[in-house]
Amino acid sequence: MFKITTAVGFQVVSALRYGQSPCYIALQCLGRLDAKSQLGPKCRLSKFLNNNVSDLCCTHHSVRCYAKNKDKKSNKGQKKVSIDENFLAEHFKYNTMKTEMEKAVAALKNNYIKNLSLRSSTGALDSLPVTFEGDEYVIQDLAQIVRKNPKTIILNMTSFPQAIPSVLESLKASGMNLNPQQDKTSIFIPIPKVTKEHRENLSKGAKALFIKTKDSIKELQNKNIKLLKDNDALATDLVHTLQDQITALADKYVLEAQRIMEEKQSELKGDS
Q1: Conformational region of residue 109, where left means phi above 0, alpha means psi within -120 to 50, and beta covers everything else
Q2: What is the average pLDDT across 183-212?
Q3: pLDDT per residue over 79-116, tens digit each?
Q4: Which of 33, 122, 143, 269 satisfies CB 3.0 to 4.6 Å to 155 for a cystine?
């Protein structure tokens, strides 16, 4: 029995080494053993080996194929791009692009602070932008801000009465759910209650500002990639490498802007 098992095992190992089917080789070997043996214990032994070796070989193949396919799926679509700032700066105005992307994210954060407050406050109104006679001002440049009581803010527009229509328009478009009322040269601003609907509207406003920031960053990305592609002095492979890094940088700032938006939405919804 030991000799028969050794003989079959040797043939199976050889088949695996050279990429052949071990099942076929094992059965072929056992068939030759059967032909030489006669009815009796040897015949039963060879049939036993025939069945068990065949089952083991088939099981081995099925497991091996499954593992191979699983590995392929897990590695699909994974691509990491390292950003080399010195390399980028050598071939175009990288620092300018980076600064503009940083400004876009900073502007988003400032917009959230100024225009998306649960409760209107004198601090939020101070820096609310107003377009007047072709120039941009903030309300504190045009009006004296007075808190009459916890529920009302008054803007004294005596110094710039001609700016009242512009200030009213800015207040209504601020995203703070304001309903200002004019009385001669004064503007009364009732502070709205913090309702669920008000929170949801502010959350939608936060997302809209994020999308605007995202588009701005992607516009900077596409603008610089186009400049690189239009530069005939740069090799195609080099342009491709630069493009990947610019895209990775833009994605980084978009993710930062998205993080700021999600934090603001959580605050507005009362989750924090």
Answers
A1: alpha
A2: 87
A3: 688 899 999 999 999 999 999 999 999 999 988 877 77
A4: 143
- Chain centre to alpha carbon of residue 187: 43
CA-based nearest residue to 118, from 268, 256, 272, 220: 268
Q: For CA atoms 210, 211, 217, 220, give the dihedral sign.
A: negative
Residue with tokens 């630069």: 242
Q: 49 is written with which tokens?
A: 């080996």
Q: Is the Cβ–Cβ distance between 33 and 46 less than 8 Å?
A: yes
Task: Record the tokens describing residue 24, joined without a space.
Answer: 């076929």
How many whole angstroms separate alpha carbon 111 and alpha carbon 174?
10
Q: What distances in angstroms separate CA 157 from CA 115, 143, 144, one per listed residue?
A: 21, 5, 7
124-137: b or e for each residue (b if 16 or more CB lie within 10 Å)?
A: bbeebebebeeeeb
pTM above 0.70, yes or no: no
